[in-house]
Amino acid sequence: MRAGIFCGLFVLVTGGLAVAEEGKPDAAPAQDKSGAASVECYESIQGSTNLPKVDNAVPKFGYPNVKCSPTTGAVLWYGDPYTDTVPMGEMPKFGDETDSDFAQAVIRPRTKHFKTPMPCSGCHASADQAAAPQNDPRQLQMHQDIIADATKLQHGRGAIWCFDCHNAANRDTLVDRRKKEVSFDESHKLCGSCHGDTYSNWRMGLHGKRTGEWKVGGKKRWWTCTECHNPHTVQEHRFNPVKPEPPPALPRGMSSSETSSKHE
């Protein structure tokens, strides 16, 4: 319980701000529903999990969907963290403290990013599990934007290769170490099959990023593994700490010495 409260307080204080992999990004122009120019800030990985800022996203309250940090360019505050989210899906029950509050858990789907301009199967339509070479590192003719040298894949420090995680029989899905098919939306199930301790902490809310309602059974937005970690360049791009945002303004008439004395 204490761990959950601590995690919630961290999200509250930081506004759900995740540490960034790289430096301060450039704000990319976007368009809101009214056609007015807006800005775009990233959620966890610069250039990968960007979210356009839309003013007056909820007319009833008049606030934007997100507030972009002027310090880092990352999402600082969410007016509606559930935009474009879908149910997380069925989660395994282990009968221990890691059985978290999954009933109303939602995530932002990743599969839609792999369907534009076409799904992976658009080029790999004839992929066959038996014909595809397994654990045979070789240079690829494509995807250099994802991994420059596939013979030196950083994930696992060279111990694994593409088809250990990507499904050779169906390129639109992933596969865990037991060769069970996994959706790109459920990267936590794949990552958790090897990174057990981290997966347990993520299930309990001790690792990763989350925001939403406090109450048990309340709707909660979860961030899956690949929203914060790039599995292809894990050794090259580590998480670097970012400068914290300034503290909120004190109530009128209150000094900083008064607030510090109350916490002693």
Instruction: Give the H and E element order.
Output: HEEEEEEEEEEHHEEHH
Q: Count the DSSP helices.
A: 5
**How far do the termini sit from each other?**
23 Å
Mean pLDDT, to the nearest integer, reads 76
Topology:
Blueprint (H helix, E strand, L loop, with lengths): L1 H13 L15 E2 L5 E2 L1 E3 L7 E3 L13 E3 L6 E4 L7 E2 L17 E3 L66 E2 L5 E2 L4 H6 L3 H9 L5 E3 L7 E3 L2 H4 L27 H7 L2
Parallel strand pairs: 8-12
Antiparallel strand pairs: 1-2, 3-4, 5-6, 7-8, 9-10, 11-12
In short:
15% of the residues lie in helices and 12% in strands.
Attribute tags:
264 residues; alpha+beta; four-stranded mixed beta sheet; 12% strand; disordered N terminus
